[in-house]
């Protein structure tokens, strides 16, 4: 466990399931408790709460490496991707990776009138061509932890003049990434950024990237409190014009969680997380168990999902099962002892050899 987080987490299990949902830091839980009390007693201060939403936006912008004016708020990746899909011209071609997370792919299907091309992840960059209008991909695959070739993708997109959309949900917080290299990035923050569900961010180019403000309400006006009735006469000049109205409680906690991630530092978190994942991979090799080749914080073991998860649970370790695979995810609150606990549990499995 990183020292900066020792006072923030007190989980009784070896929680190795951040790829499903991160743990909420103590500071975020305290703010939520206070806010609920304020709401129930009629002492809520909306102006202060809106200021905390902006603090969350600014904190995320620093993690993403872009100005706050390029960050829009929302509640889910699917909504953000739907905004991008809804802004594409009829007949546009969208390139995606096989078995990527549904929220990255399905909005382009339900939009209708688009051509969807699907290729293996490792062939994504080489499959970009002159007919490609947008490439959409998760930086880290939810299914098995593989990391996309984002350098290759960015280069191919520049060569062929297409736009890019990167989902950072499984990477933001431990895999440093310059979001400004891509036209759009989206991120659900309830995993590695330790926020409650209901907080997501969208980054856009300075000129808005051709998006239409489909969710624009009063808060998306340049002067929100002067935009509460009738048409919004002046949309925000920043990415705030693409905001989906932010729910108070998740964002109040998010401001605290994102501040913690900043204090620890994504680079330091990434080094910690990868070291634990490497320790786990090394141990699996010693046990003769196979895993999906990857170099990140998520390790996936094919074909042993339910059996492995039961062994882990008996040992007090929390993991997940995806498409029959056992998936373990290592984050800033995990320790080497917890890795070894999971390895001891899995030693009861027959080796692949």
From TrEMBL:
Residues 84-342 form the Aminotransferase class V domain. The keyword Membrane does not apply. SUPFAM superfamilies: PLP-dependent transferases. Pfam families: Aminotran_5. Keywords: Aminotransferase, Transferase. GO terms for molecular function: transaminase activity. This is Aminotransferase class V-fold PLP-dependent enzyme. It comes from Streptomyces alkaliterrae.
